[in-house]
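Worked example 4.2. Below are the chains of a multi-component assembly; read each line carefully before continuing.
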Amino acid sequence: MSDLPARLDPPERILMGPGPSNCHPRVLQAMAAPIIGHLDPAFLRIMNEVQGMLRTVMQTTNPLTIPVSATGSAGMEACFVNLVEPGDRCVVGLNGVFGQRMADNVGRCGGEVIPVEAPWGEAIPPSKVRAAVAGGNVKLVAIVHAETSTGVRQPIEEISAIAHEAGALLLVDTVTSLGGHPVKVDEWGVDACYSGTQKCLSVPPGLAPISFSPRAIEALERRKGKVQSWYLDLTMVRKYWGDERTYHHTAPVNMIYALHEGLRLILEEGLEARWARHQRHHDMLVAGLDAMGLSLLPTEEESLWSLNAVRVPEGVDEAGFRRHLLEHYSMEIGGGLGDLKGRVWRVGLMGHSSTERNVQLFLHALREYLG
Amino acid sequence: MSDLPARLDPPERILMGPGPSNCHPRVLQAMAAPIIGHLDPAFLRIMNEVQGMLRTVMQTTNPLTIPVSATGSAGMEACFVNLVEPGDRCVVGLNGVFGQRMADNVGRCGGEVIPVEAPWGEAIPPSKVRAAVAGGNVKLVAIVHAETSTGVRQPIEEISAIAHEAGALLLVDTVTSLGGHPVKVDEWGVDACYSGTQKCLSVPPGLAPISFSPRAIEALERRKGKVQSWYLDLTMVRKYWGDERTYHHTAPVNMIYALHEGLRLILEEGLEARWARHQRHHDMLVAGLDAMGLSLLPTEEESLWSLNAVRVPEGVDEAGFRRHLLEHYSMEIGGGLGDLKGRVWRVGLMGHSSTERNVQLFLHALREYLG
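Applying the procedure described above to all two chains together yields the following structure tokens:
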């Protein structure tokens, strides 16, 4: 017993990295509510409420709108394994880590990747997508709305029109945008969409909201073979979330509690007001950086409000500043991934972390550090 | 805003079904601790502590002992997708729902299932496994230690010897046994093992502890192709849990907090004492049932302590009793699955739910209902 670890005592951080973001105390409290069974009548009502609120936040009426019982990356995999079969041709936008991950998923499903590239820090030009689908027989077009590795926001509507004209499904990664930026699944014609709870929804990591359009469901129902993942097989999972309530796996009950309260907070604030808040604090950050002669990696038009990739000035110790922030301010920001390692700081202003106080404290610390 | 669901107010249940079990208040409190980043130095220490405690509970020194970031069924899938490649011959024990699910997993990986069957309610005879591996060229033998659908406990050691003599890996489902029954990964020669947090560990559902032996790691490293699941690909996941700390996906931070405290509670109680407690309350239940002329589906030798499949007496409304328990006692038990639907009650005595008080209250309610 002498080597029993001490009781947990995690530090109180300001989370301004690429996620997780801070949680409202009400979310953490909800998560600690008494556990009940995943088939309890009281839990089934909670599931219905979560689905209803998720549809509002995702701006969709899709019946198949659910939180997958794992983190955002499993939401990505859920979309691909259900829609892509061996030999399916998939156009994938590659302009950061998460586009690459999509391509990796397509490959693991036996699909063929038709890459559409843009430099890291830039959006994918719709014209390139148009050229890629021109080859014909494309099953789906996959694109990242909010590239967490570069801070780029990808306009969706024109690409959606191109995909649908070509008879393809549109699959969109909204991990870092949902709850912080407008994500309009129905209006934009998104057929499959996934997100994560730990970004702009400000719920701990552990669930991946997804939504499938009727066209995506049709594709699912027309599959030739079984979905390669048992856990993520939506032909079964949808019967647990649907009227049948057929047991599939045990839902992560307390995580669903947390999501319920997180969604309630979002609807209390109002979607429009929440988006405006994210934009306002992004603008405040950009103005402050600008005053120091610093800038973001993407252009202003293509910048996310929720994730800001700040160019590290020449000669400054990138990792040193992150250590300084953690030690002196108990504040977390992210470093660059892949080719951007050492070249950018990733400053998240997501959900509960997107506050004036956080922006100003960060700017103060940065001014101080740069001297 | 008028249709905003009310704040959560889940009922306080006594959870005596097939899982989830009740959580100790300390586990729920731990889960509500402030969230920190999944690469925070403080979180990395917590991960190390969780791994250390998991190894003790699983009775192993396997370095690759981690909680998969999803529920128990994903733990099952993690074991199969990493170890089974197309064409691999797998002997699978089929004597309940969860053996069938294993076979389904093998099929989705392109493996060939060599079934070894026993009637639901009985253990798999080792002689049948011996006959099945005699065909040669068997990659792995997969067996359920604790069949949650039937309450059967499967002895592992003889089957382990048979598997290893045949040059096969041994894969074991310990979802409903870990933390309630002895599970001795190293002593028994288990090569891959998975469990869930919401059974005898008494942590909310959302994580799946797994352990891979050095032989299983070798098989993983000798794979011909990529693991078909990106999310569960242990060649990547192990680098996050290992010294490299390479980012793969965002760990479900607060669920890991809960597991940390759940494991601390287990080690405080002591493994031997905890196993004895589970046995004691199972014995108490069986004695009480016996006094009413009722019995379990499996023989006493093959019965689990953690999950008791009680035969429903002729003429008794199976579902009616479960509704009665929920309404009058706020107590949940489970019904039968598959062929056992309507024929058994599944009474879980797992982890924090395995108490004298719960057993006696259940017996009282049953006596009362049967009149």
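Take a moment to check your reading of the output against the notes. The longest helix of chain B spans residues 271-291. The radius of gyration of chain B is 21 Å.
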